[in-house]
Amino acid sequence: MTGDSLLGRDTELRRVQSFLDSVATNGAALMLLGDPGVGKTSLLDAAAALGQATGMRVLRAVGTEFEVGISFAGLSQLLLPLSAEIDRLPPGQQAAVSLVLGSGGPAGGACRVSAAVLELLRAAAAARPLLIVVDDLPWLDRASASVLGAAARALHGDRVGVLTARRTGEESFFDATGLPELEMGPLDAVSAADLLRSGHPDVAAPVESQLLAAAQGNPLALLDLPAALSSAQRAGLDDLPAHLPLSRRLEGLYSSRVAALPWATRRLLLLAALHDASDLSELLTASGIGMGVPGLATAERAGLLVNYPDTGGVTFRHPVVRATVVATSTSSQRREAHRDLAGLLADDLERAARHMAEATVDPDEQVAGLLERAARSPLAARAQLASARGLFSALGATPWTARAEQELLASSPGSGHGGLARFELTPQERSVAELAAAGLANKQIADRLMISHRTVSAHLRAAFLKLGISTRAGLRDALDAADPASR
User: Fold this and answer.
1) How confident is the model at residue 381 (pLDDT cuts 50, 70, 90)?
2) Cys bridge to 215: 34, 170, 221, 258, which one at CB 3.0-4.6 A?
């Protein structure tokens, strides 16, 4: 009956069944809480189906953003099926309920309307238990929320149940003080794997591990992240992109929260999303907002970050939040963020050059040259470093200019330095090289990994130098020789 959407929710289903048993005898109220995509709506659907199966009358409403300012919009959804029973009420209460349904004129104050609605619900529950189910409670208009809050308390003993759902941390006009709550957390590891496999049996084991780590037990992510991949990616034949693509449903989970933030806060989140570390002081330096951290507090209140003061870093509530921050930014905003991050990394030219490459609109051989420097001899590197120093100086990238000058000194003859060490391929260099060895063009690689074509070129050039080859034809053998375990 529950279907795959409620795999691993046996505890929650038992709690809902207990709630329905109470409704059938004496009335009850229960509020579901949980992060976006965790399955609150699926549990509401299950509760409604269970209630109907036992003979309950079910009334449903969903709060909507465009109706949040319309008085009684939500209550009208609930009461419309009871229109035929309004005649049972005294004339004054009939007028009050008609006002709620939009078919009557003034009928007294809010208290009179609330009393009339409560009486109608009692009358409807006299024949059989009545279950009221309301989803997206924060978008319910104030007038409707006030009446339902009163109903959740005043209808005890009348075989009326009020079951509502809202996202954790979101506020609403509904007064839930003292009412029972059911918090829905992420699925456990076994249930998460079962859900992913049931929805996408074609996912290979190595890919499954990556998807499970990215979804973190969120049912919607477990179902939608694999759907956004190609069949070759799900089968493990093609590498997954650095930032997993989001379905429209997944992006919609947090996009409104991100869009509602002040730009300074969104900029800080974008820096954190694009950065490969979470050091708070680094991000604050790049953002230029200082150590007061008002932007982080705003993001935490919005349910996008968690525990940043305790961890000393910026921790997104869920990987989907990070991906949404990137997906909802513009290309110019991402380029600016990459340039700011590049300025943080003057002591790590390879990482800095990757950010600088993403910040450059047109291909730039000087930026790409930085990615080669670690694999070249000190003498050959000096020309690139000197050229890069001029580029950074022209761009006003003072830390980079200073770092390039330091490297020039370090690689000069007689400096006492033995030159710059050779490095193994980085994970992204290897991903690019593997795809190139498989015959993909740079544009195809860029689309597959969700990076720019100039970054692909830079990674390939660095890989060629590190592997000691000069053409793509030698990539496969060189990769296998560099990693015998892969053969």
Assistant:
1) low
2) 221
Exposed, middle or buried, 138 (CB in 10 Å: 0-12/13-18/19+)?
middle
Q: What is the pLDDT of residue 420?
A: 35
Beta-carbon contacts of 212 under 8 Å, excluding residues fewer than 6 positions away, are 189, 192, 193, 196, 222
Q: Tell the burial category of 174 from Cβ atoms under 10 Å away from its Cβ (0-12, 13-18, 19+).
A: buried
Q: What is the pLDDT of residue 166?
A: 92
Task: Please give the Cα distance from 72 to 78 (Å, whole number).
Answer: 10
Distance CA 11, CA 429 (A): 46
Q: Dihedral sign, CA of 67, 70, 72, 77?
A: negative
Is the distance from CB of 459 to CB of 371 less than 8 angstroms? yes
Is pLDDT larger for residue 443 or for residue 434? 434
The secondary structure of residue 473, as a DSSP letter, is G
Q: What is the model's pLDDT at position 139?
A: 87
Q: What is the pTM of this model?
A: 0.62
Residue 191: φ, ψ to 5°: -65, -35
Highest mean pLDDT among 59-63, 284-288, 393-397: 59-63
Q: What are the respective helix, strand and coil percentages of the chain, to the nearest 5? A: 60, 5, 30
Q: For 327, phi and psi rounded to 5 degrees?
A: -65, -30
Tokens for 157?
A: 């003993």
